Amino acid sequence: MLSLLSYIVYEHNLVFLILAVMTLGLGSVVTMKLFARMRRTEKDVRQLWLILAGLIGGGTIWSTHFVAMLAYESNLILGYDPVLSIISLLLVVATTTLGFYVASLTQRTYLIEIGGLILGLGVGLMHYSGMAAIHLSGVYHWDTTVVVFSILFGGGFGVVALNRISRPVTRFCQQGGTVAFCLAVALMHFTGMSGFTLTPLNIDLEVTELISEEILGTGIVIVMALLFLTTFITSTIDLKNAEATSEHYKHLALHDPLTGVANRLGCEQYLTKVLSRTGDSTTNVAVLSVDLDRFKNVNDVHGHAAGDHLLRTICQRVTDILGDGEVFGRFGGDEFIAVKSKVFTERDALEFGHRILDSIRKPVVWQEAIFEMTASIGFSLFPRDGIKPVELMEKADLAMYRAKTRGRNCAVGYDEKMDTAVKERTALAMDLSSAIENDQLEVYYQLQNNASTRNISGVEALLRWHHPQRGMVPPDIFIPIAEETGLITALGNWVLHRACKEACEWSLPVNVAVNVAPKQICDPEFPATVHETLLKTGLSPARLELEITESGIISDTAQTLHIIRQLKNLGVKIAMDDYGTGYSSLSTLQNFPFDKIKIDREFVKEIHTNKHSSAIIRSTVILGNSLDIPVLAEGVETEAHLKFLHEQGCQQVQGFLFGKPMPHTDLQAILDLQNGLENVSEFPKVEEKRALRAS
Known about the structure:
CATH topology of the largest domain: TIM Barrel
Distance between the termini: 128 Å
Largest sheet: 8 strands, mixed, barrel
Radius of gyration: 45 Å
Strand order of the largest sheet: 12-13-15-16-17-18-19-20
Shape: elongated
Number of domains: 3
CATH superfamily of the largest domain: EAL domain
Helix content: 55-70%
């Protein structure tokens, strides 16, 4: 050890020695970083990093050796053989690359250490081949023991260097690998040189083909400069690519892939940023919740490709009308959010909402179809309605649902009463779940009459809920709650059983119509439920009429058709409810075996004021007669309605003209009364029927 230290201190030029150490230190850091980078890379790019790591690592070892030889103070060095010098460079680059390659073949096996050993032995190979390139004025001798130790130092620390990079256990392992690489090169060189003995001889040698120390030094500088420049350029390109990739992934993470607008996360981040920047107490920020009306029907009827085209078109149109401080994003499905900063009054938020509505209302062409969409928009204002993004979005949603209840196709601002309405709705949902057990439900019946004779031809069963505190809860309030909470199936089955049971008690065996929810008609077990109900109650299948809407059919046409055929096999009649409000009523009539068509009340209401409504009724009656399917019109409230329908050939009617929905006892009395009359002219009007029941 003392011999090694004295050799380093007394036989070397300090300036060149420091330069050798700096070369080794810088090259070791870069080499180990490149090796670590190479191990984290896959496929073809990995080979490029391997070559670069081999070049830098080999060049560092070679340059350190020859700079250290320049530091070696001896007048006996005549020069360096150019061929052997280049061969030593090629050898060390090759062995370094091979060592890195072997170590990169595995993540856990001892090939890592074998690669490190190859690296260390390559350092020794370079050192002694480099020494062979030196021409001396004398003879030299190597101490075999020292040479062996130098090779062991190089191989051992080469193993440690790659082991620390490949098997890290702490965050300092990469620095440890760099230090081990430095020790492998430095100890190999200086230990070996400490066993080098040079005996001067007065020999006259021809040195014209040798490289001088000045030229060698210049060559070393050029080689390392080129290598480091190559590494810098490559690393810069890699960094730029990584930044571009990061930005790309960031864009994907914050934007909707279908429409290109901001997604939920992107909108939330933008809203958070906008709220944090709002320092002017006179301005507000508007948060709008946008939901397309009846978008599901487009997907169900025309397919998801049409729905995707519609969403992309709408997003593009809304994006085109956005101004400064306005953002539009998609939460998913047909739900969107919009944000507008610098809002001074609620009118500004409404104006923004109406601009969005105008963009959505524009017709969208898809193949041969034309979609005319509307939307329901609710908005909240910061800081009036909340200061947190989540709070503002929730209140905008509440306002949006209020817009839907107001008829859709409008924009509504949030007010505190909406929170009360939500709480009441939640409480109703909880009470509804126990309404059957608490015997709070009752079936009411609305008459269906022959349009010509006015005789009762059937009744429609309608569910009513007697709440112990709230009284009679309207169906348009609790039925949507039942559909949202999943209670609709249990309620529908209860109505079916109760209506069939009570129908068996009637003196006049008219048909009973029961509404079937979309969720029920899609249930494969529904035919079995109907069959079991008929068996338990004893009602004839021919007297049961199940009413289904087109929206309950088109969600899964094949499955629904299979279920309807099973119901028909039981002998049950199937009626199409709300005819004329769907997207493809004609094709539905063609594909499904209906026993009755029910015209929606909205068309009957406008018979005398809307020529389109009257035309639809005429065409429906003609269609039904041509298909031998009876047609029933709902919403008949006046004699003028009845007269028009009778003249058009409509067979059955239903509406307040013949009475409002009534409980079972009242219906029994009316059926008993009609059963005792010989002709309909003796049949009393509603007021007279009530008087008779009272007496």
